[in-house]
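re: ur msg from earlier - yeah i can do the adenosine monophosphate complex, just paste it... oh wait u already did. ok heres what im feeding in:
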Amino acid sequence: MVLLGPPGAGKGTQAVMLAEKKNFLHLSTGDILRENVKRNTDIGKKVKVFMEKGELVPDDIVIEMMLDTIKNAKAKKDFILDGFPRTVYQAKKLDAELNKLKLAIDMVVYFKTGIETVILRLTGRRLCSKCGANYHIVNMPPKKQGVCDKCGSELYQRKDDSEETIKKRLEVYNSQTKELIDYYKAQGILEEVSGDLEAGAVYSELTKILNTR
Ligand code: AMP
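and the outut:
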């Protein structure tokens, strides 16, 4: 399954819920890239500046990284791609490689989300510095301010969740990622949920769709 939508649409939150409740494997390109930056790997060194500016990381880097991840995960579980593909070029490469592995994308869920929701979500988002758990200062606050409920570590704000970088990321979404909606619609595998709803309501929409497929 591929989750598609602007940054702040709630793709990551839903992917975590689906992974916990339905046993999917959650593959988030952003999380994998951030982990590489944190560990200062070769990939991390190459992608850091792009990520900080809110630009897409070059296709070749991200495609190779995600295809390796998928190959390692193959046959273990059904997987959710969160944040990949993000360009039509990436989508075509993904289709071709999955075909070779005798795999295919069953379903793409488009999170249709208004700009006001996205800005409120991203500016209030906080992450755990250790386990990566996601919070929001208003919608999903931790029990103790600034501290992760799950592992007790400190919460932080992503550098690219600043207002200026959010603007850039939305521009990038509109100019390079949005066209994937038509790409997958043409394949007859696109489903839509409202990303403006709160997490529990989106999850019920998602499970309804899963049950009818
Ligand atoms: P995310 O956590 O999905 O918001 O991604 C954070 C950042 O990682 C993006 O702003 C991009 O710089 C980079 N990134 C994530 N996924 C991709 C992708 N599929 N292609 C290119 N860059 C990506």
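cool cool. The first strand starts at residue 2 and ends at 4. ping me if u need the other ligands too
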